[in-house]
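Colleagues,

Please find the record for the two-part complex below.
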Amino acid sequence: MPKILRATAEANPNIAIIKYWGKRDEKLILPMQGSNSVTLDEQLKTRTTVMFSDKFRQDEIWINNKQLTTPEELEKVMPQLNIIREMAKIRLKAKVVSYSVTPVAGGLAGSAAGLAAVAYAATNALGMNLSISELSVLCRLGSGSACRSVYGGFAEWKRGEKADGSDSFAVQIADEKHWPDFRIVVGVAESGEKKVKSRAGMKHTVANSILYSKRLEYLPKVLKESKDAILKKDASRLFEIAMRDSNDMHATMHDTWPPIMYLNDASKEVIYAIHELNQNGIKAGYSFDAGPNPTIFTLDKHVAEVKKILENAGIKKMFVSNVGSGPKILKDEIEHLIDENGNIRKHSFDEKKNMLVIEY
Amino acid sequence: MPKILRATAEANPNIAIIKYWGKRDEKLILPMQGSNSVTLDEQLKTRTTVMFSDKFRQDEIWINNKQLTTPEELEKVMPQLNIIREMAKIRLKAKVVSYSVTPVAGGLAGSAAGLAAVAYAATNALGMNLSISELSVLCRLGSGSACRSVYGGFAEWKRGEKADGSDSFAVQIADEKHWPDFRIVVGVAESGEKKVKSRAGMKHTVANSILYSKRLEYLPKVLKESKDAILKKDASRLFEIAMRDSNDMHATMHDTWPPIMYLNDASKEVIYAIHELNQNGIKAGYSFDAGPNPTIFTLDKHVAEVKKILENAGIKKMFVSNVGSGPKILKDEIEHLIDENGNIRKHSFDEKKNMLVIEY
């Protein structure tokens, strides 16, 4: 009996503190500048099973029980998969089954966790023995910021200098145990598809925002400052840097032609309320990715106040996350989303039990 | 019988095309860069009567039938009035009665018309013979952009170089007859007071927006380009420049610490809809001052489409304006808002008759 080339991985999304917005190489997904992030805990994880088999006639990719069919959808996963096959020197077709409780395209960094999980599962299925930097590069080729999800704790994605991108990967700033009372409150204001996808949006910003070059100038300095604040656990310093950087990024988006405007009235309300909360000392910092959903960095003791602010802004659904860990490989047969014969196991998220249920 | 020192002036608001945002001198109201604008027609005019008399025990200022009482309110008019008294070498107290159909502080440039009318009425009441450049300087000292309201048609406010501000005034680009089918559709989304006043807002932007310096770099070029587009009546070029500049200014506002966010969801809806309207050639250009109210520059033939866009965004009240004229002095006794004895005449705007009614 041939060896079953199958593995399952879980990865957690990361939320950027210093944001990634703009590529210097579209194909290799090389950023214009460095960025950093904190990895969320398991509440927003993605699980992915990848299987390679000569029984498969074609690649098949399923995300949240929906098969990807359009070229645009497939484009999100196929390049990474093809690179892995090339590296492993195989031609086998693959089945990829991925499940995430995170809204996929609402600026919640769901795809970062998804692509990181694919990279881990696929390379593990093929028995490839990659360093974490090589895995980070693979994740980067999948979805840019996914490269930061290879670490738990806090990670920095190095801009790198080489044209082939081999030095553009994430390094860990501090692990998940470094800052026990750090919290990330993730508000889910909208889970719909975005009007402007991040990829197209950042391309336009690089091409025609007048202000963007100024952002690039100042980023190296704040990247260093924010790393320092993380290492020193200087919460108010870090929260302020995060807010300023979020504002700065959304400013360059608005300066893009045509303008990109991800924030809505609820986002603005959260921003004003957090500034009010911070009037006598910074207790929390808002951060917005490419969408209206607010993410609030704070400390355990301020979580109740932050939750109230989001509720008052009409945001009903939210997650309070600790600093989370890096990807892991699940070995137990019961954990795979594809059985040993290549059939997809029925799976769904049970909100009451708060767990992924797999029909076995 | 002593001479009655009283005069009445009317002035129209102007809407900036290249925006003014940021002072290099707070006291003299000297801008960081040049700006330009189009003057609206009479629909949004302000009428002001100023009277000086030794019978008055103190200065008294009335705007829209409400007396200004707080230091913050008085600060808007008093400096200009004091400068005029100094120039005329008189110490008489003044009564100022101003009436405008424009919301005063909703980013609708109402104060520009108001301060221009005060400057014209006050200097006329005192029989001062000022050049239009000197009047423009006086208006500037009142409210910055008011200096552009001394001209009908299109005007440019020169940055100037001198420390005393004597070379920072408006010049006319083209008069009100230059572009007969040019239209300005002014939407009134909100007429409430602003969260962040323009004066404080622009001060913060100059002080701490990272991106603002880049804006200053690019402005001289677009100022020249937009003047050229006005002179050539190149509508689509001018509309694009206006939209880009509005976006650029609001971007630097968002990049300010704390961030300044004047646009709301309705503003965004208008922006997206105008870009859609422009897909096969630019028919209109949006522009936002320090508030959520959209102003749309367009041509007569596209007004119906533009009005529909504003209506769809929930904006019910709007004005369609031609290019308007500069301030004028009203000589007829019946036009004064203050009678010859210094008593205020009851006055109000009759929306049905669409005219200012004065009880005589």
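The domain at 5-358 of chain B is CATH 3.30.230.10 (Ribosomal Protein S5; domain 2).

Comments are welcome before we finalize the supplementary table.
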